[in-house]
Write a structure and sequence with these properties.
Elements lengths: L2 H12 L3 H9 L4 H4 L3 H14 L2 E7 L3 H4 L1 E2 L2 H9 L12 E7 L18
Antiparallel strand pairs: 1-2, 1-3
Helix pairs in contact: 4-6
Length: 118
Amino acid sequence: MNEDEYFLYVNVLEGSALWSILADRSGSEDEAAWEALIPLYSDLLIRWVNLGYVKLVVGEGWTAAETGRDLPRGRAVGVLADESSWRYVPEEGKQICVVPGEVRITDHLALSGDSGAR
């Protein structure tokens, strides 16, 4: 895994909201600073959704990753490609979160320095 993939992997394990991935990676609360990152993380997540490594969950508030509903794969790809999906949402609002999918990513992508993964 490269640095961007590893960063995203950690956020998937945490059930992060899309917007918070950009805020964390940019180190900024300024949404304008996030825009340059959308294509990179959108493309990575679309690829990972299609491979079953990741799924999107939509729900209310900070517990959305645990209590929300899964988006079907085809719809998830469309949501990820839509830049408006990456905008900041207040904590109590509808969150779009990334969570682990059915396929373990570590079975296919080596973690940094880990040559044991296939």
